[in-house]
Amino acid sequence: MATRILKKARNAEKRNGEKGDFVPGSFGCHELLDRAMIMAEMTEKYVSEHPACSQNLEWRALAEKAVEALNELYQRIGATHLDR
């Protein structure tokens, strides 16, 4: 799975511009930071807190895990991006 994600990232770089357009401190990196926050908030509000999800302990646990992962991603991107 990680290999597939890396391949997608490399292909995105080729399609979307030079690697420098997305390094920490760039607008592209800031855009990713914003998207990670938006996805964390949306996942929590529209998935984790959805009544169907809340009523199923397994689904709720997975949804909360997704929110935690997106929040961690946001923190790591921000730590690098804003450190510049």
Secondary-structure map with pairings?
Elements: H1 2-16, H2 27-48, H3 51-54, H4 57-81
What does this structure look like?
The protein is mostly helical and 84 residues long. It has one domain (24-84). Helix content is 79%, strand content 0%. The protein is built from 4 helices and no strands. α2 runs antiparallel to α4. The longest helix has 25 residues, at 57-81. The protein is elongated, with a radius of gyration of 15 Å. The mean pLDDT is 89.
Question: How helical, in percent, are the residues?
Answer: over 70%
Q: Structural class, please? A: mainly alpha
Continuous helix count: 4
Average pLDDT: 89
Largest sheet: none
H-E order: HHHH
User: pLDDT under 50 segments (min length 5)?
Assistant: none
Cα end-to-end separation: 30 Å
* Estimated share of beta-strand residues: under 5%
The radius of gyration is 15 Å
Shape: elongated
Integer count of domains: 1
Number of strands: 0
In short:
With 84 residues, this protein is an all-alpha fold.
Main attributes of the structure:
84 residues; mainly alpha; 4 helices; 79% helix; elongated
